[in-house]
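User: I'm writing a tutorial on reading structure tokens. Could you give me a worked example: one chain, its sequence, then its tokens, then a sentence or two explaining what the tokens reveal?
Assistant: Sure. Here is the example chain.
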Amino acid sequence: MRRLLSTVVTLAWALWFGGMIVLFIAVGTIFGTLHEHRGLAGDVASALFRRFEVYQLALAAAALLATFAWWLADRSRLKIALFALFALAAVAAVLVTTRVSPRIEGLRARHASDTPEFARLHHTATRVYTAQAAVLLVAGMVLPAAVRDDPARRGRSAGLDTTAASTPAKMRGQPGAIMSGAGITSAPRSPPR
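And here are its predicted structure tokens:
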């Protein structure tokens, strides 16, 4: 179950962060390509942002729920840190989706995209998206440590599997048995004299 949860968290993070990077590239390309048609570029970018907002809210919910369930399965500080980072990024997503974007769209609908208020809101949205991407980048740096910290992986990452199930039955309790990276094995015998 822990492996499934860590996989879901990793996929949600990758799709969310990767989606943000693609959004940045796409919007830059749209305005770079359609620079002579700012209205059309604005319409295309606006539609792209609306779709991304729904997409990122769904991924934020998935990341938060899966991280919480993963923490319940094995409580660790790294999972709490990951959850806090996802929560911070989710708050930014909700803020842009519910507070900033509707006001930008309202100004666009009134053909007021050349106003100082539009410029201010656009700048706010840019800062929030950039901060959100930075938070998700940090989450991506914490994520591998959280996966390695899982109990099922702790022993394997150290090269030890000390469970009774990994010890060959014929070796348990025999004199001359030693620990190795794969469990208990027989000690090398000295050649006869």
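What the tokens reveal: The two ends are 54 Å apart (CA to CA). Residues 38-73 form the longest helix (36 residues).
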